[in-house]
Structures are given as structure tokens and as C-alpha cells.
Amino acid sequence: MSPFEEFDGQTPTWCPGCGNWAIGAVVKRALANLRLSPSSVFVSFGIGCSGNMNDFLNAYAVHALHGRAIPVAIGFKLANHKMPVVAIVGDGDCYGEGGNHFLHALRGNHDITVIVHDNSVYGLTTGQSAPTSPKGFRSKSTPDGLIETPLNPLALAISQGGTFVSQAYASRVPQITELIQKAITHKGFSLVNVLQPCVTFNRTNTYDYYDSKVYDLPSSYIPHDQVSALKHAMNMTIKEEFPLGIVYESKRPAFHECLPQLGKQTLLERGQFEGIHEILEHFI
Ligand code: SF4
């Protein structure tokens, strides 16, 4: 597939070979496969290279401030809970700057899909270590090697109440497409952590590295047991092996379903936002 076909002839400012190309194209394809037109989905973008997709995706969209893509997504969901809501973020934005929001969105089981371009580095700011950078990672911000151990997004999401926790790899396009579609149709908080090589600023987590470190969950694996799911998640920390697929899935009411006042109508349908257009126009 040519990325230029997928992006309608426009050219995102991503480096040649970056995993963002595949993820960007897949997001568009997944939305089209789900027959979600631009006016029937809301997307909240975080900062960083992944956020540049905001300019190339035709949908109700907001390019949020640092770490704030998730609360923007939650706010939109509570205003119009009948519309699918997606947050597209990087690992630095989601697990670092917005880590607090990530934790509490998991606890609340807010019905949003979070797609993380996990490249283990701050790419747009030219290569500083990020929450998922490996221990010892040498970067502009850690020239003598990173002291901290990497954050484990899957273990965090499973232990804090996420009800759909999955991982994909940027070079496996069909699998990312399938996982994103399943995540969007899941009722509750869904995470698709996409391992995404940054070919310019991360010389550790390369395509060769991931090719030798990822593994598919066996077809017999049933993702409903939290302990088994945590074992696979912890393989990333203990063995440096990365499971691909749905690692954990469960059912419990989403946050908005626990609010009786949202039972029949959305806030939008109830006219709670009358006059909002005039207010917004004031800022444009
Ligand atoms: Fe991709 Fe890294 Fe280039 Fe950003 S800096 S576009 S993450 S390769």
C-alpha cells in the first residue's frame, strides 16, 4: 500500500520508514471497515509525531495539549456517549505527561479506545528518553544511560481495570487493523499499544529488535484470566518478550452506563450545550 494513496495525496511529516505510516493508514482503514463516517466518530490527538495525524484524518477531532488527549476524549464521551471516541497518542504523552489521566480512565472503564504509538522515545522533540525506553537507553536526555526501568503499559492497564488490553506491532498491518476494530466496538476502556519503531531517534527498539522479540499469543489462549494476562504482560519486563494480540478482555459497566441521568438521552440530545456554537465562535 502506498501511504500517499491512504492519505489522499497529502504528505504527513513523518520520516521515511517510521512506524507511524502504517498506524496512520490502518486507523483510516479500520474506521472505514466499521463504516464510521467522518461525522460519526470523535478522535482526540495527543502531542508528538503521532499527533500529526490530526491533519490527515477527516473526523470530529481535537489536537489536545500535552498529556490531555484522554480527558478530552472522556469529556466528549460524556457529552455524547452514543458516538465512538478514540484517543491517538504517543507513549510519552499517554504514559508520561498524561499518565495520571491514563490511570483514572482505566479505573473508570470509560468507553474510549486509546491507540498508543509506542516508540519508546520522544521523537518530535528529537530524541529524549520516554516512559517505555529500556533501562540503559542512551539519548539526548540520558547520555550516560537511563537509570529507570521501563513502564509496562499492559501490566498497568490490566491491573488498573482496563477491560480490553491489546498489543500490536507496526509491521503487522492486518493484526493492527483487527485489534483497532475490536477495540472500538468493545464497550469500556480499550487499549491498543502499538510497538512503533522510531527509525530516526531510537536505535535500540528497531524493526530488527522487535522482529526477534515479539510473539503471537497462542490460538488456545483465552484472555479472560487476569493472572494469565499479567504473566504475558510481565514477559515484557522480565524476559524482554512482547506478546501480540488481545492480552486481556473482560466485561463491566462503562462509566457513563453508571450514570442514570444519561440513561435515555445524551447530554447533547438534552440540549445541555445550547449556545455552545456561539461560545466557540467567540474563540475562533
Ligand atoms: Fe517517526 Fe521518529 Fe521520525 Fe517521529 S522522529 S516521524 S517517530 S521516525
What are the key terms here?
Rossmann fold, alpha/beta, 284 residues, 2 domains, two-stranded antiparallel sheet, binds iron/sulfur cluster, 10 strands
Structure characterization notes:
With 284 residues, the protein is α/β, with parallel strands linked by helices. The chain has 2 domains: 20-252, Rossmann fold (3-Layer(aba) Sandwich); 260-284, no CATH class. The protein has 10 helices and 10 strands. The strands form 2 sheets. An 8-stranded mixed sheet has the order 2-1-3-4-8-7-10-9, with helices on both faces. The chain has a two-stranded antiparallel ribbon with strand order 5-6. A hairpin with a 5-residue loop joins strand 5 and strand 6 (128-129). Helix 2 (20-33) crosses helix 7, helix 4 (91-97) crosses helix 5 and helix 6 packs antiparallel against helix 9. The protein is globular and about 55 Å long. The structure holds iron/sulfur cluster (SF4). The site of iron/sulfur cluster has 12 residues, from loops.
Number of domains: 2
CATH topology of the largest domain: Rossmann fold
As a whole number of angstroms, the C-alpha radius of gyration is 18 Å
Q: How much β-strand is present in the residues?
A: 15-25%
Name the CATH superfamily classification of the largest domain. Answer: Thiamin diphosphate (ThDP)-binding fold, Pyr/PP domains
Order of strands, main sheet, comes to: 2-1-3-4-8-7-10-9
How many beta strands in the DSSP annotation? 10
The second-level CATH architecture of the largest domain is: 3-Layer(aba) Sandwich
Low-confidence stretches: none
Query: What distance separates the N and C termini?
Result: 37 Å
Note the main sheet: 8 strands, mixed
Shape: globular
Number of helices: 10
User: Mind telling me the CATH class of the largest domain?
Assistant: Alpha Beta
Report mean pLDDT, rounded to a whole number.
93
The computed structural class is alpha/beta
Summarize the helix and strand pattern as letters.
Answer: HHEEHEHHEEEHEHEHEHEH
Ligand list? iron/sulfur cluster
